């Protein structure tokens, strides 16, 4: 049958699409800035129709009305990455958190650890052959749609068409809801002097021809500021933001030296402003693949000189990284940090960098600590950490003993907290000679 005929047959309103969902179903929604809007709004309005509908997603950038207290018997949220709209519900027990490396989320669906009853997705308008693009949310969304019993697609003319393994055909969609709203935007972070210093320190580790993975926020954006004199950089990253566009336009990012997907930027999702979304639209330089490919450490490692840059909440003197929780408080999620750290570490000439301000809470708390907060989850083990960068410098931990890495980390801690860290170092290793030597060095 002609796909245009199928399209018309599958057209439905958001309200009627919401009525296709049954109680006790598990729903997986599109991710981050690609979150579908209208069907979820309709579900919230019609919440009395449901009981125990489980809504699964990673970070949500919509309002998250389904986690409100008055909806707790209608909906239950299972978070794979806690975001601002759902954090309170997770902390108060109205929602749950399921740990998973980003690369392994599709496996949860494919092997039915989390069986998908309904996938609610947002995609581009179909091309001449009836294929819609997952646009800025390929990641786990494509896998969820392939595994779901029912696929409800919001088709939005404002969704960019990204290339690569990023398509679904009209015949594989059960219900189509036509929408026309602006894609969620993530405005650039404010970059201060501390972020600039960290960015400069990170950039000092990046050589011409390197392939980069960059996270979200002020520090990755600051790193980009100090790469303008580099040559032939490449991108293999779970996501990119607006700063990458500027480096492409400046001729810094060319992807010519990549050893995997040469001349292409590889991503799995996107978060930025309309500038980024316009840039990626139908751009053959950008290819989007599902996250179980992009974030596979073995795939990542095939990029020579792979550089991963991530952040964390705390790091202890042994090099253990806590990136997702503050004590027992679940703050975010694992995401792709470990995927890329391990991939970069396996890469020929690769480097993984944890980049953090030396303090938090307006300078009152050190991020480099003697011990992680009680109950904090170790996201990245001490065995995997390579470089740590703060505004005070760079510590290389690979090949260092526990004592050596503690010294290196103290050297890049904020001066206000070094004395306490030195005292812990002395107690832990109890070496009079070292105590005298390093007191002199730090003072």
How would you characterize the overall build of this protein?
The protein is α/β, with parallel strands linked by helices and 443 residues long. It is built from 16 helices and 25 strands. Strands 4-3-2-1-5-7-10 form a seven-stranded parallel beta sheet, sandwiched between helices. The protein has a six-stranded mixed beta sheet with strand order 12-11-15-20-24-25, with helices on both faces. Strands 8-14-13 form a three-stranded parallel beta sheet, with no helix packed on it. Helix 7 crosses helix 8, helix 14 packs antiparallel against helix 15 (415-429) and helix 15 runs antiparallel to helix 16 (432-442). The mean pLDDT is 95.
Indicate the multimeric state. single chain
Radius of gyration: 23 Å
Shape: globular
Structural class determined from secondary elements: alpha/beta
Number of DSSP helical runs: 16
Can I get a quick summary?
The protein is an alpha/beta fold.
Name the descriptors.
seven-stranded parallel sheet, alpha/beta, 443 residues
Write the layout of secondary structure elements.
Blueprint: H1 3-10, H2 14-18, E1 26-29, H3 38-45, E2 53-57, E3 75-79, H4 87-91, E4 95-97, H5 105-110, E5 118-123, E6 131-133, H6 141-147, E7 150-155, E8 163-164, E9 167-169, E10 175-178, H7 193-203, E11 211-214, H8 218-225, E12 234-235, H9 242-249, E13 265-267, H10 274-280, E14 286-288, H11 291-294, H12 297-301, E15 306-310, E16 314-316, E17 321-322, E18 325-326, E19 329-330, H13 337-346, E20 351-355, E21 359-360, E22 365-366, E23 368-369, E24 387-390, E25 393-396, H14 402-411, H15 415-429, H16 432-442
Parallel strand pairs: 1-2, 1-5, 2-3, 3-4, 5-7, 7-10, 8-14, 11-12, 11-15, 13-14, 15-20, 16-23, 20-24
Antiparallel strand pairs: 6-9, 16-17, 18-19, 21-22, 24-25
